[in-house]
Amino acid sequence: MSKSAGCCQKCVEYLFYYETPKTLVIPNIGVGCVFRFTQLLVVLYVVGYVCVVQKAYQETDTVISSVTTKVKGFAFTNTSDMDPRFWDVADYVIPPQGDRSFFVLTNMVVTPKQSQSRCPEFPSQSTTCVDDCDCIEGHSDPRGSGIQTGLCVNYSSTVQTCEVLSWCPLEIDTMLPEHALLATAENFTVLIKNSVTYPKFNFHGRNILPHINSSYLKRCEFNRATDPDCPIFRLKHIVSEAGEDFQDMAVKGGILGIIIDWSCDLDWWAGKCYPKYSFRRLDNKNPVNNVAPGYNFRFAKYYKTADGEETRTLIKAYGIRFDVIVFGTAGKFGIVPTIVNLGAALSFLSLVSIHVQSCNMEKHTHTHTHTHFSGKIMTSRI
Amino acid sequence: MSKSAGCCQKCVEYLFYYETPKTLVIPNIGVGCVFRFTQLLVVLYVVGYVCVVQKAYQETDTVISSVTTKVKGFAFTNTSDMDPRFWDVADYVIPPQGDRSFFVLTNMVVTPKQSQSRCPEFPSQSTTCVDDCDCIEGHSDPRGSGIQTGLCVNYSSTVQTCEVLSWCPLEIDTMLPEHALLATAENFTVLIKNSVTYPKFNFHGRNILPHINSSYLKRCEFNRATDPDCPIFRLKHIVSEAGEDFQDMAVKGGILGIIIDWSCDLDWWAGKCYPKYSFRRLDNKNPVNNVAPGYNFRFAKYYKTADGEETRTLIKAYGIRFDVIVFGTAGKFGIVPTIVNLGAALSFLSLVSIHVQSCNMEKHTHTHTHTHFSGKIMTSRI
Amino acid sequence: MSKSAGCCQKCVEYLFYYETPKTLVIPNIGVGCVFRFTQLLVVLYVVGYVCVVQKAYQETDTVISSVTTKVKGFAFTNTSDMDPRFWDVADYVIPPQGDRSFFVLTNMVVTPKQSQSRCPEFPSQSTTCVDDCDCIEGHSDPRGSGIQTGLCVNYSSTVQTCEVLSWCPLEIDTMLPEHALLATAENFTVLIKNSVTYPKFNFHGRNILPHINSSYLKRCEFNRATDPDCPIFRLKHIVSEAGEDFQDMAVKGGILGIIIDWSCDLDWWAGKCYPKYSFRRLDNKNPVNNVAPGYNFRFAKYYKTADGEETRTLIKAYGIRFDVIVFGTAGKFGIVPTIVNLGAALSFLSLVSIHVQSCNMEKHTHTHTHTHFSGKIMTSRI
Q1: Glycosylation annotated at which residues (chains A, B, C) (predicted)?
Q2: Residue at B17 is within a domain
Q3: Are B195 and B298 contained in the same domain?
Q4: Residues 110-169 of B with CB under 8 A from A
Q5: How large is the ipTM?
Q6: Contact partners of A by the rule of 3+ C-beta pairs under 8 A?
Q7: Is A244 in the same domain as A326?
Q8: Is A360 marked as a binding-site residue?
Q9: Which residues of B touch A16 (CB under 8 A)?
Q10: CB contact residues (below 8 A), chain C span 182-221, against chain B
Q11: Interval B187-204 mean pLDDT
């Protein structure tokens, strides 16, 4: 019984007796300074870099956003190719819904009154012909404009080409106007409404800030220096902030990113969480390795003639696509990242002592002797 | 030679002799309890908070998703302004493709038979005129409706305004119907098909869950209480779940987020990974600082008359844009985060001992004396 | 005064005297080997797994991307239902803008010359009638096709159904062609231009790689083995890489993900950051629990007849929606994650020594005796 009692006591002792490493104090101010200085460095790293610069004590969340855009402005074109024409939003913004990506038409090749019929191909090495034998019925060249009918017909008084079944007359897209047709599009404005959410922190924000009133919104225009909070942007201003020239870009089209950065530190009062706008051209302007430079696409308006035949107006639209890109990471104090970073830094504090100790080891014999000679200098605590 | 041998032996000793800190056991149950209790707190933090609550041992990945939507329903309108008209999906859903963002038309201002021509401006301070001198040819006011022709013409029998070149007749968008035209849109339903992927974990999921069969899908309707897994939503229900009234919202339009949360713990059987639906209005309803409240956009249908002249029907469409927003983070056990979190926690365990030790230090002299008097009580282990 | 001086000196001593734990070297090669081996394991984990495999020393950022797509190709259809017709991009790509999600029409049910009028419902259990009493004026069945007028009219010579107000004639969508109408769509090609940004690292990339020249781009076609960098994809190839058959998929439609993975290690020269393409069908093909399998939507082209009446051609479009999904995480050496991971690993190194010590503890008495008997074997350093 005494044995079991002894065992029990041992257990209690093992569990509840406090155990601490014996340490040795070396009264050498030089070594002590190095030691404390290294500790200071670690502490500075933790406080200065990890906490202040990197905010590593924060949990993070990425933004969820919703964007609406509304373009305003009108233009008037009067060129030799087309009738004088007035353009409003319903004409030049595609698609019309005002999504996060909208396209403003600035230049175009219009091919009106196309219908399903037969016409001669444009002359090229593979389409010119002498007689019907050169044209294969049903053949379709991927670089051609339609399905060959097998006939060889006059393209002009001097050239004969294979006839194709296609939407005729064919589009002549080499005759793109040198100056953008809707050059005045540079004065259009766009209102961007953006609301964001950080679901983890239950934070909701808008790019129309609380301190802005309606009368200001009716007349303001974004300017990085004077009106950095105005959500109304002049297209010319956007393009020039991206380092491009609107008139240049308008001829062949391009893609322009309106980048809204919602990176926020939510530890402070939420009112400090502002959007930051930046602008960048997203397509490549003039690189060597570029296919289909600029930005264009084809769409058609379909009509029916009185006798029921379908015709269409094919439009090869060149213009600027504006992509509103919202990104951001919000940080807020979180216990787990704090613990992890502090813990890791503590490891380094203990590493410091280990490291200095190993240096000390090399002076082993010397110190040892020292202990023997002057017990006062080295005091083993406890 | 004996010297080199001695050096070699020292190296071996240095490498393979095990080195351990001398520790001291203090047989004080009070201090021991505090020590163990602090250790317990650290362990509880690690096990309870880091592992169970925060799941810090997991690697995470964000969701990639694909959404299709399909609206069903039809409406009938019979107002004094317009002919009686039947509306189906192809009429009121814009764009028709059923993307993650779809717009349901609920109200509108229709301006039919517009053509490129000349008409008097609406009377306002800047557009009323007495004679042609008040109107400048080619001038276009950003708040006006077109390009001034330089003539001053009769707007009504009493008012003269500048004539403009524009799509005439001009749109009168102040006459928005007070009650939504397509009020019955609240009974439309939308089927949302959503498939998600977590590429890092090679997980694929769908919002049509495996245990759901086709016959259920044909008749079910989402209800948080009774049918939480049904992917078919009644528009009215969505809007009311977001805390809004459909008929109110339908008049001036708005944006409604259908938020699908795919946050999952993939450590358990994958079947537990379910989508959670929530609904939130994304635009601001009635704030002080609001420009263009609600949601509307203009689009046009283009026609050609028998004599080839282009006319259009301009529609200022008010309605609700539904944005399906899919987000989520999946977590799965990962060795690196586990190690990092355990390691950091271990640092704190060692911090505990350091801390208690420094407390102990203050009792230095006392304990020291103690050792001298009763060698039995304090036993230095090895 | 001497007291205060003594206190001051104590402070200095406390601050600048270096303090190191007493350690004990156990000259047992067996224990030493186990000790060093365990340390080696920890070091191997840190160097091998954390650094090389998991790259845990890196900060990460997620990709921001912009996508343009351009489909090329034309088709010719000649079926009994429709007139022979030539199809080009403006006809079969919806929407036309070339966004990150584009739809290629492959099959359709066309209902031409619909107008707002009255026609008999399709016969079904709820729509067949004997006389007008069976039909309720103004009633609209969600599964029906319009608003009942209250009349019972002849659907055919044998069947009477309720008359509805709707777009008439009604669409008969059960007569979907068994073979895709635009079967030749499999030979269309799509050029995908994708530019990405990692804002944290100020990295910009394009999927048209720097070493590719324009002449190559004009003739190349993506092939995982021979042309893995070409941004031009044949639709048939995309579908077959996703493990599907184009002709099968074209009949009822579907959704196909073109997944571009920009995961990069930016520590190395940026040229190594290449996009990796993969393809996956995103909708469910033939599951048991599927509503509305495939992918289709309805849209209409509106016309006006000479007498001003609006007619439309309703098209139920079946086809393949291609979603370009860009994802990726870039990593670059960061001081915070490095410190955190190293720190955590260091904790484990110290854990090793604690662990071995506790093993040693069990041999307590034995070792203790040992010390007494042979002071030489156990040398306490310092």
Answers
A1: 187
A2: no
A3: yes
A4: 116, 140, 142, 146-147, 165-167
A5: 0.78
A6: B, C
A7: yes
A8: no
A9: 29, 32-33, 36
A10: none
A11: 89
Binding-site residue positions of B for ATP? 70-72, 189, 296-298, 316
A169 upstream amide cis, omega within 30 of 0:
yes
pLDDT at residue B105 in the model:
94
Contacts of A98 in chain B (CB under 8 A): 297
Q: What is the dihedral of CA C88, C92, C94, C96, to 10 degrees?
A: 0
Which residue matches tokens 């390795």? A289
Residue C228 within any structural domain of the chain: yes
- Are B163 and B121 within 8 A, CB to CB? yes
Determine phi and psi for C322, rounding to 5 degrees.
-100, 120
For A262, other C-beta atoms within 10 Å of its C-beta total 23
DSSP letter for each residue of B316-327 = EEEEEEEEEEEE
Domains in chain A: how many in total?
A: 3
Distances (CA, A) of A192 to A56, A70, A246: 33, 7, 20
Name the phi and psi angles at C357, rounded to 5.
-60, -40
Q: What is the mean pLDDT of chain B?
A: 80
C349 → chain B, closest CA residue: B343
Summarised one tens digit per residue, pLDDT across range B107-153 is 999 998 899 999 998 888 888 888 888 888 888 877 788 888 889 99
Scanning A8-27 for CB atoms below 8 A from C yields 21-27
The whole domain housing B145 covers 122-169
Taking the Cβ of residue A342 and every Cβ of chain B, the question of whether any pair is shorter than 8 Å is answered with yes
Residues of chain B with C-beta less than 8 angstroms from the C-beta of A91: 300
Are residue A253 and residue A165 in the same domain, yes or no? no
CA distances (Å), origin A304, targets A113, A258, B303, B335: 10, 40, 8, 67
Interface subset of C 36-75, CB within 8 angstroms of A? 62, 64, 66, 68, 70, 72-74
Cα A159 from Cα A162, distance rounded (Å) = 10
Cα C85–chain centre separation? 37
Which of C88, C193, C346 lies at the smallest CB-CB distance from A347? Answer: C346
Asked, for residue C16, whether it belongs to a domain, the answer is no
- A with C: how many residue pairs have Cβ under 8 Å apart? 194
Nearest residue in C to B336, CA atom: C50
CB contact under 8 A, A357 and C217: no
Question: Among residues 229-248 of chain B, which lie with CB inside 8 Å of chain A?
Answer: none
β-pairing verdict for C254-261 and C310-327: parallel
Domain shared by A139 and A274, yes or no: no
Q: Which residue of B has its CA nearest to A311?
A: B304
Question: Rounded to a whole number, what is the distance in Å from the CA of B371 to chain A's nearest CA?
Answer: 7
Chains near B (3 or more Cβ pairs under 8 Å): A, C
Query: Are B146 and A86 a contacting pair at CB < 8 A?
Result: yes
pLDDT in tens, chain C (382 residues): 455 666 777 766 666 666 666 666 667 777 777 777 877 877 777 677 766 666 777 888 888 888 999 999 988 888 777 778 899 999 999 899 888 899 999 999 999 889 999 999 988 888 888 888 888 888 887 778 888 888 999 988 889 999 999 999 999 888 788 888 999 999 999 999 998 988 888 888 888 888 888 888 888 999 999 999 899 999 999 999 999 999 989 999 999 999 999 988 888 665 578 899 999 988 877 666 666 788 999 999 998 888 878 899 999 999 999 999 998 888 888 877 777 777 777 776 665 554 333 334 333 333 332 333 223 333 333 3
B377 belongs to a structural domain: no
Residue of B nearest to A232 (CA): B291
Residues in chain C with CB shorter than 8 Å from the CB of B206 are: 284
Instruction: Express each pLDDT in B225-246 by its tens digit.
Output: 999 989 999 999 999 999 999 9
d(CA C242, CA C255) in angstroms, rounded, equals 11
